[in-house]
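Tutorial sheet, problem 5. The three components below are modelled jointly, 542 residues in total.
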Amino acid sequence: MVTITEGAVVALLAGGVFFGLVAAVGLLRLPDLYTRTHAASKTDTLGAGLTLAAVAVVYDAGLPTVKAGLLLVFLLITNPTAAHAIARAAADQGIEPWTAEDGGDEQ
Amino acid sequence: MTLLTTALFAATAAFVALSVVIVYRIVRGPTMQDRVIAVNAVGTNTVVVIALIGAATDDPGVLDIALVYALLNFLMSIAISKFTVERGGVM
Amino acid sequence: MTSGRLLVPVSESVALRNTVAYAVRHVVESKAAEGAVHFVYPYSPQMVTGMDTSGVDELLERVEVWADDDLGDDAGAVDVQTAVIGAGEYLFSPGDYADVLAEYGEREDLETVVLDPEFSPSGTTPLLPPLEAELERAGFEVLEAPVERPTRRARLVRGGNVGQFLLVAALSFGFYLLIGGSLSTFDLVTGGLSGVIVATVLWRVCFSGPVRPGRLLKRIGRMSVYTFYLVWEIVIANLQIAYVVLHPRLPIDPKMVEFDAAVWSEIPVTTLANSITLTPGTLTVDVDSQSFTVHSLTAGARDDLFSGGLERAVRFVFYGRAAARIPSPRERGEEGSDDGGAES
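Model answer (structure tokens):
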């Protein structure tokens, strides 16, 4: 018999792994640095977020839940900031973004 | 093993596998920033893996490690971006 | 060299005395035939600084006395004037301030603007960099009065009060106990000590202005509403990205776009930039005061960006409901500035 907690955890984990997969696929498939940053920074953030939510649910209510939530909020703030810093560093170095006109060949 | 621990360990394995896939991007590059982004993504996955292991083994102390690791991961991305922009300038 | 006719916008600030001295010295050294310094106070009735007109007059009087002091023997050669401008107009953005200043400058035939590095007529909101850009666009030469400390970077250490100290200490203490997870005497004592140490080091760094508990609570309330909205946006947009990335033909159309966001001051801009990055399909690459350079993955993502939902929400959090009704970037005509355009 599957309890509500178990169901929720499994669903959140499945969602988390799915978005983690999307992030990995995006990192490999997308043509240039900026587009890859899209995949890495937020799809991964949502994947990690859902998984951490699952962890929070596993620990019922209590201090570890709060910590998992804290971790989640922290990732939500730092990941886009890091992505922004990296993209900005790239832009400062003059790396040009890939556009649709450049043709479809992937690196 | 209960359903919960099985699911948690399965998710852990999945995230480890995904991280290994991302390593391809770290190796291939081609630019420094590509590698930083990939390392950052692996780092995020590592945080998740640590938290998942904590949940699966029912050891709440592990979450503190995940918290510190997330901090380090963030700091690493910022430091490397800063370094590449200012070429070794002081942070 | 620069002209001997200066326009100096003033407001209550710690560097005001310095600025007056700099402006006067500048005019005297220029040896212009018709040297003039006009000190103007951009006054607008909705300002929340608590300054009424008598306070403004008093400030301008003080400035005039200082200027006369600095002039000394040259008093006859330089025409010092003071004025209140913009009264009755609704001054909200740096652009509004630049407009009233430009209007006055043209009327009085002034070519150079000297800015007080601490100039902030609207209270705590720093608007110097955008104001500088707007004035330069209007054809003025802009000088920033030099001050002892470097002002090109935002200042790290600012004035603080007891409220800030207590808030930092309390937050550190709370965080310590939360991570520690126990309420034993040992933890309470070490936590208290840590809180005090952290607050001693950081209390003047953490906040951009004095703590106003009422406003802070209101912002936190609105922020939690915003968080739900943001999470919803993130989930929806992530599904779109998942579709794009997993699609066999990879239907992306990446493009850099630039636009000026209608948000001001550090924290709202940071919040907006992070929200833009978190909403998949758009990635903030660079922010220069309020002009955003955003990399967008698909045309749909660009559409969402220009319809300005996020921007409006951020304004709602930080400025309240009235500010949320400012037109979206599309209605302001910001749309379509393409990659590489320095102007936007």
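Marking note: Chain C is about 45% helix and 15% strand. Full credit if you identified this.
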